Amino acid sequence: MSRLMSKTDTPYRHMLTDALAFSSASHSPCVGVCDHSASQDCSGCHRPHDEVEGWREADPDIRLQRWHELPKSLASAGIKTMRLPLSQEAILELAHKRLHDGGSWMLGGSRFHAATDRHLEGLSATNADQSVTITLASDIKMRAVLWAPAGHRLDEDMAQLPIALVTPRIRIERQEGWHQRPQSGGYTNTLYLSELMRITANPDARDATSIKMESVIAEAEIQMRDHPAPDFGKMADMPNGLVLPESYVLGLMLLSPATVIS
């Protein structure tokens, strides 16, 4: 079972709630999986068919009201994920703040969860002893998906909930993912490879065994001197309990300060 704890983070909360306040026709709850065959509600975004069809023509005030109602209606239906109305620029700003402001990230399963508390230039950050460096790609289209782990609901304070940074599956099909690009930096030994993740080792590292974890939109370089050797045979590409729409693939999980998922 997941356990979630978080401190209050006012700027982070404002960024998310402002996204609702400024949502527009270009920001739709649609997740790219449109199926109304089973019921009157779409199986992807769980909205009524008439709402989906009339979204772009709807009055902005109605769209705004619907965005504010959506977390509660989805939570009442037992839904655990919801796309957030964030543009690419807003997503990068959100990620930048998480990586530079003491937040945490997850790449793959919880075994590789690590906090970041020292910022580097651009969309990169490192932990206190600089044994882990995480970098986020800015050239791949992303979406932000709010996730309520077990025991939590989407209508809780969204600043307390994890956010999955995802990208359309077509990026993998076109072989555009970061983990599908040529290996570099001496990381020549492949330790793990899946549709969502590549892990390679650098045998030439002087003081420690270095590994690089790469997802479709992010990479992490890890010096294993202070980290237990991972069991790649049990490697998890996604956190336990996270189920995304089939149109999305997970790239990186952003956690607010002091959040723990276990």
Description:
The protein is α+β, with helices and mostly antiparallel strands and 262 residues long. It has one domain. Helix content is 19%, strand content 22%. It has helices at 10-21, 49-53, 60-76, 88-100, 170-173, and strands at 81-83, 104-106, 114-115, 118-119, 124-126, 132-136, 143-147, 163-168, 189-193, 198-202, 210-214, 218-223, 248-255. The strands form 2 sheets. The protein has a 7-stranded antiparallel sheet with strand order 4-5-6-12-11-10-9, with helices on one face. Strand 5 (124-126) and strand 6 (132-136) form a beta hairpin. The radius of gyration is 19 Å and the shape is elongated.
Topology:
Layout (H helix, E strand, L loop, with lengths): L9 H12 L27 H5 L6 H17 L4 E3 L4 H13 L3 E3 L7 E2 L2 E2 L4 E3 L5 E5 L6 E5 L15 E6 L1 H4 L15 E5 L4 E5 L7 E5 L3 E6 L24 E8 L7
Antiparallel strand pairs: 1-7, 2-3, 2-13, 4-5, 5-6, 6-12, 7-8, 8-13, 9-10, 10-11, 11-12
List the defining traits of the structure above.
alpha+beta, 7-stranded antiparallel beta sheet, disordered N terminus
Mean pLDDT: 78
For the termini, the CA-CA separation is 7 Å
Encode the helix/strand succession as letters. HHHEHEEEEEEEHEEEEE
Task: Round the Cα radius of gyration to an integer and report it.
Answer: 19 Å
Summed up, the helix count is 5
Shape: elongated
**Helix coverage percent of residues?**
10-25%
* DSSP strand count: 13
What's the number of domains?
Answer: 1
User: DSSP strand (E) fraction?
Assistant: 15-25%
> Biggest sheet, in brief?
7 strands, antiparallel
**Which class do the helix and strand fractions yield?**
alpha+beta
Low-confidence stretches: 1-12
Task: Please give the order of strands in the largest beta sheet.
Answer: 4-5-6-12-11-10-9
